Amino acid sequence: MTVPLWNWYPQPLFADMFLTLYVLSAETHAQRIIGGQEVQKYSIKYQASVQTEKGEHYCGGTLVHEQWVVSAAHCWRPQYMKVVLSEHDLDETEGYEQVFNVSKLYIFPLYTYWNYNNDIMLIKLSEPAQLNANVQPVTLPDKNARPLRGDVCTVSGWGTTQQRWREWAPINN
Ligand SMILES: *[C@@H]1O[C@H](CO)[C@@H](O)[C@H](O)[C@H]1NC(C)=O
């Protein structure tokens, strides 16, 4: 899951960032996004895919700095995790992928797994990403920016474009 909503400055100020994310990530659970569409390849340059050792995508992330990705705390796994940038079709190696190991993980201290409050995790990549036409950190607002209210936001990630299984059926909450 990534919720890229902001303008950003390259040096992460973690206190500010957590605060911003904390506010924005409330109430985002237990709802599905219906009606998304495939993006133009590599147009969401900060989009990261968090994957298992076998390369199975299981969570999204947002590149916020050349070596840091924000994801959700519930995406932490005791097993091997890797991060892929410049990814589009998960079933194909398209040649632009940048694959990283994880060198550090920070789970937001106020994360509570039983209700997903403060569901935020910071991932440090094993090395800085190569910033190029496909890979750029998201821009976040400066700390004095007015709060969002009635703004149009972009939400991006991998999902299914067709409903095939019962468990993917839309849910109301
Ligand atoms: C990730 O770590 C494994 C060993 O744990 C190593 O074989 C592999 O080359 C590393 N990959 C990257 C992209 O650093």
TrEMBL record:
<dbReference type="InterPro" id="IPR018114">
    <property type="entry name" value="TRYPSIN_HIS"/>
</dbReference>
<keyword id="KW-0645">Protease</keyword>
<feature type="signal peptide">
    <location>
        <begin position="1"/>
        <end position="30"/>
    </location>
</feature>
<dbReference type="InterPro" id="IPR009003">
    <property type="entry name" value="Peptidase_S1_PA"/>
</dbReference>
<dbReference type="InterPro" id="IPR001314">
    <property type="entry name" value="Peptidase_S1A"/>
</dbReference>
<keyword id="KW-0732">Signal</keyword>
<dbReference type="InterPro" id="IPR043504">
    <property type="entry name" value="Peptidase_S1_PA_chymotrypsin"/>
</dbReference>
<dbReference type="GO" id="GO:0005615">
    <property type="term" value="C:extracellular space"/>
</dbReference>
<dbReference type="InterPro" id="IPR001254">
    <property type="entry name" value="Trypsin_dom"/>
</dbReference>
<keyword id="KW-0378">Hydrolase</keyword>
<keyword id="KW-1015">Disulfide bond</keyword>
<dbReference type="Pfam" id="PF00089">
    <property type="entry name" value="Trypsin"/>
</dbReference>
<dbReference type="InterPro" id="IPR050127">
    <property type="entry name" value="Serine_Proteases_S1"/>
</dbReference>
<keyword id="KW-0720">Serine protease</keyword>
<dbReference type="GO" id="GO:0004252">
    <property type="term" value="F:serine-type endopeptidase activity"/>
</dbReference>
<dbReference type="GO" id="GO:0006508">
    <property type="term" value="P:proteolysis"/>
</dbReference>
<protein>
    <recommendedName>
        <fullName>trypsin</fullName>
        <ecNumber>3.4.21.4</ecNumber>
    </recommendedName>
</protein>
<feature type="domain" description="Peptidase S1">
    <location>
        <begin position="33"/>
        <end position="173"/>
    </location>
</feature>
